[in-house]
Please model this.
Amino acid sequence: MVSDMNNNIFQEYAQAERLLEQNEVMASPAELHGILCGFLCGGIAATGKQWLTEFNALINDGIPVPAAVRGWLEEVFLATQEALAQQAGLELLLPDEDSPLDERLQAISEWAQAFLAGFAVLQQDLGKASDELQEMIGDLSNISQLDDEFDEDEDNETSYFVLYEHVKLGVMLAFEEFGLLPPQSDKKPTLH
Model:
């Protein structure tokens, strides 16, 4: 299933849902991506598989997820890590804009809650965070408790977009403060 996914995994929410369903993983793609982002922003090692051990402990009582799901998670983890490290191109794994607003609101709420859980695994002392990040963590906590009963209208669509961008800003801020960059290659380019 992983091999036939589009290169842009963040635009394949429904496909990811099917993968998780087929492998009896009782979490949404939004929740899983939120956890991974929380780990990365909390400062999990940028190399190795520590994140996978922490992930299994948090989501699956330490039991490894099925191989197909693990492969997909590795793709998501690496793509997210790259976007965070480059400070550009970060997308949240959420239903697309054609999905009903209430589904998107539920997913962003789940995403925020999962992000906070993943972040808390590595950062239990928010006193180390800047005032701005502490405020953003409070905002994410509020977003995690959203009511998804909204009318489908242009004002609410605009509000959702603003909310989405605010969450992305918070993620980038958290990564800036606590995230670890992947090591750079020590190879110098060969000059001819």
In short: Residues 23 and 66 are 7 Å apart (CA to CA).
